[in-house]
Amino acid sequence: MTNIELRKLVTESVKYPGTKQIPKASVCNEGFPGTFNLSFIESEWLKEYGGQYIDFDHDYIVSKIQPCIRYQDWETIKSDPVNRFRYLGVFEMASVTGMVSLVDGSKTDEAVSFSIENFYKFLTETVGLSSEKLRITYCRGGDVSHLTKGKYKFNKEVAEDFYIDEWKRMGIKESQFISDDTRDTLLALRIYGLSTPWGYRNEILYEHQGKLLDIGTFEYCKYRPIFKNDEIVDLEKWEHACVVSAVGIERLLMAINGFAEITDCDHIKPIKEAILLEVKNKDEEQAIVLTEGLRTVHRIMSDCKGYENLSRKRKEKIRKISNGIFDSAKKLGIEINDIFLKKILTLNSKLQSYYPELSDSIELVCQEINESKKRIEQKTDYGRVKK
Predict the structure, then answer these.
(1) Whether the predicted model's global pTM rises above the 0.70 cut
(2) Across residues 235-256, what is the average pLDDT?
(3) What span, in angstroms and rounded, lies between the C-alpha atoms of 286 and 41?
(4) Which one, out of 49, 96, 222, 348, has a CA that is 20 to 30 A from the CA of 115?
């Protein structure tokens, strides 16, 4: 299955009634100040509810495919060949049944049942994954202090995930569930200091070439945090509802196609191959680093429209990514120049033709990478001028 084919299937999948398709958010949005977009809906929630994630005054039911940049993955890509196979500099997250935010919390049961059933059918019927190879993590419940490893210190017993039986109703066997007592399955949240409902997460894993591959997530919220002196001290039942199912596009393509590497996806592999044709040293690992560095900078520049528009912390991150680009190019024995950059960036734009802004930003990316090279030559440690 190709990337384009999967994107079409996700877009056309059965959605919660009233779901609206919305455009992606910029990877440089204020839902994630100081870093890049990490998740699915924070930017829109921030605009829609003014940061009052916990107090909905109207329903908001949407779907989209969202580019994400999890900056910590960059170190894995650069220096961890064992785990690099499943990480990208920029990846895409897509809702399957919709992001469902409802004023009326009494609809939670119905929204969860609808979402799990149609999420399961999408994975097993629409894209053809084996039900027997699915693994579902769930929160076994327990004390908040224990479940959050001391992140939140108040004592409160949280129940086991309320909706495990919904997965069982789909045919998931007891042996396919993985019990967990960490924040991987308890949504114990306070997004950048803003009040956020708490709830539960099921990580959707798939047996893939002898390993468990994280291909998606199902989440719902049940609790309202109680504050005292700006600290969370208790939980109570939340009166609203929030339910979402989502997949990682590239991870799912890996599972569907049996790819050994996530960079084998058809909108990425040609870039790696084009780089290897240009370089002296045919080092595939370094070609992957260069591929992901260039794809990531291309995405950031196309969204922010220039280095000067980035915050200080985002500038630090893009400088480190640029350093990685030049380090990998040196190991590959190639000079980063405009001819090489335009060839690779044009290819990246064609492979993601559904994002016309990538083509429009090629000159801007070339300018940024050239300026980055000058900054690297003039400074060290991202700001200290060489003595």
Answers:
(1) yes
(2) 97
(3) 33
(4) 49
